[in-house]
Amino acid sequence: MEHFFSEKTTPLIELKAPVFNEKHLRVWVKRDDLNHPLIQGNKWHKLRLNLLQAQKHSASTLITFGGAYSNHIAATAAAAKEFGFKSLGLIRGDELAENKENWSPTLEQAALNGMQFEFLSRRDYRRRHEADFIHTYRQRYPDGYFIPEGGSNDLAIEGLQILAQQIDAQCPDWSRLYCSVGTGATLAGLIRHTAYRANKQLIGVCSIKQGDYLIHDIRRWIGDATKHNRWILDTEHHFGGYAKQPPELQQFMHSFQQEFSIELDPVYTAKTFKTFFEDIEQNRLPAGSQVILLHSGGLQGK
Ligand SMILES: *Cc1c(COP(=O)(O)O)cnc(C)c1O
C-alpha cells in the first residue's frame, strides 16, 4: 500500500530563451509527464486515492467512462492491470461495438491491459452523471467501483495535494502556474492545495469549446471561498475544440519540441503552453514573473 503514498518528485526544468530574458521572466516546466509511463501525469494523481478506496471496499472491477481517445481510459486500464483489478470502460459511441477495426490506439492498448468495453450511444452517454443510470450499472456490477469521466471526483482533488506540495517545494516563489483543463479537477486541486499568497495566480486553459460551465464544478471542488480570487479560466484558447488540431497548434507543438526537447500532446498541453507564449506577446505577464507550466502528461506511453 506504501506505493500509493510515497511519490517520487518529478523534475522541474527551467526553460531558457532570449524572449524570457527580454521580458524578465523565469519559466519552468513541471515534468509531471515523467511520473509513470502509462498512468501518466494528472491521471495518476486523480486515480491514486480512488484505487485505495476501491481496495478498501474490496471492489473487483474499476468501472469508468470516456471517449475513444481518452487519456483517463488509458490510465484506468493500466492502473487496473498494475493493481490487480478488472476494468470496464463505458465508451462513447455505439458504432464502435461492431467495428473493432475502427478502434483507436487508446482502446486497443486498454484492451491489451485487460479492459472490457461497453459502447454507449451518444444519448446514453449523456446520462453518465445521472443517479438512475449509474444505479442500473451498480446492480449489474455489485462489486464494481465507479470512477467518473476524467477520473474527476473528490478523491481526485485530494490526490492532487502531492503535486501541489511538490510545486511549492521546488519553486516557493512561483507567481503564475499554467495548467490544462478538461473537467477542471486538476486546476481545482492545485488551487486548493498550493500555498496561498496574494501574488500567486493559477491560469487554467480550457481545451473544450464553451467551457465556462466548468467554473461551477471548479468552485465546488475548491471549497474554501477565500481561494476563489486566485485563479482564472481561459476559455478562449481551445483552438477549435477538444479534438481539434489546427495547423498553427501543430506548428507550435513541433517548434516547442525542437527548441526545448519536450514532447507535448495536442489535446491539452500544447494548447496551454501556446497560450503562455501568446500571453508573453501580449505583455500579460509582469516583469519578474516566475512562471510554471504544468506538463500534465497525455502522451499515453509515447
Ligand atoms: C485529462 C487531462 C487533462 C485535464 O484534466 P482535468 O482534471 O480533467 O481538467 C489535462 N492534461 C492532460 C495531459 C490530461 O490527460
TrEMBL record:
InterPro entries: ACCD_DCysDesulf, TrpB-like_PALP, TrpB-like_PALP_sf. The keyword Flavoprotein does not apply. Keywords: Pyridoxal phosphate. Coiled coil: none annotated. Residues 7-297 form the Tryptophan synthase beta chain-like PALP domain. Its cofactor is pyridoxal 5'-phosphate. Pfam families: PALP. PANTHER family: 1-AMINOCYCLOPROPANE-1-CARBOXYLATE DEAMINASE-RELATED. Belongs to the ACC deaminase/D-cysteine desulfhydrase family. This is Pyridoxal-phosphate dependent enzyme. The lineage of its organism: Bacteria, Pseudomonadati, Pseudomonadota, Gammaproteobacteria, Thiotrichales.
